[in-house]
Hints:
The chain is mainly α. The chain has one domain (2-248). It is 78% helix and 0% strand. It has helices spanning 2-25, 32-41, 46-70, 76-95, 101-119, 134-151, 156-165, 171-195, 203-225, 228-248. The two termini are 18 Å apart.
Amino acid sequence: MCDILSIIQLPVLCCAFFLAAALYASVGHGGASAYLAVMGFMGMAPVEMKPIALTLNIAVSLLALVMFARAQHFRARLFWPLAAASVPAAFIGGWLQSPDPIFKIIVAATLVCGAWRLAFSGNTAETLTREPQWPTLLVLGLSLGFLSGLIGIGGGIFLTPLLILFRWTPAKPAAAVSAAFILANSLAGLSGFIVKGGAIPPVTWQLLPVVMIGGWLGSSWGSKRAGVPALKRSLAVVLLVAAAKFVTI
């Protein structure tokens, strides 16, 4: 399938991935759910889709993390307890069987609700109410890591809206923490895939420069020039794209 793509469908794939990377990176995400949706619509085999999405996710989330961290939005105190619990949980979830369609519909409905809350929440989420405790972050990281490994994404689509809606951190620091969270979980997922004997399809390296350019543009805008309402609307769109992925693939 990858050979056919390189001749017939690669330009379409590049355009779609560029736009996805730019949109997702603007809120600190890597774009895996959008990549999976596009590849699914184009009829690619699942065995090819997972390593492509994870590899591109790693590149874009790393770029987003660098851009948001350089703008001084990264919050290590939030990231480390989340990552400590999520990485091993994501590895375990990746070994288990993919969830059934009913589970995916529930996840999609949750994402749509999160998108609606973000789109109409105004600036209230920028007022912090309390600091999350380490046990809470560990439980959240464990849950999101396992869920991420189970469905094959980095987990930022769940983490970012929770950080904002619980008022634990403003939108831009939430994006920075989510970028690091996605990077860690995607590395764990891809490592598990390779250890089990999987291989990264060659077309991945043709798509990599495209998503890195899109990711750089998106993360530059999100970390420096985007206002909070615009960033939250972008995140709402990301959640809706991710929800569409779960109900169509």
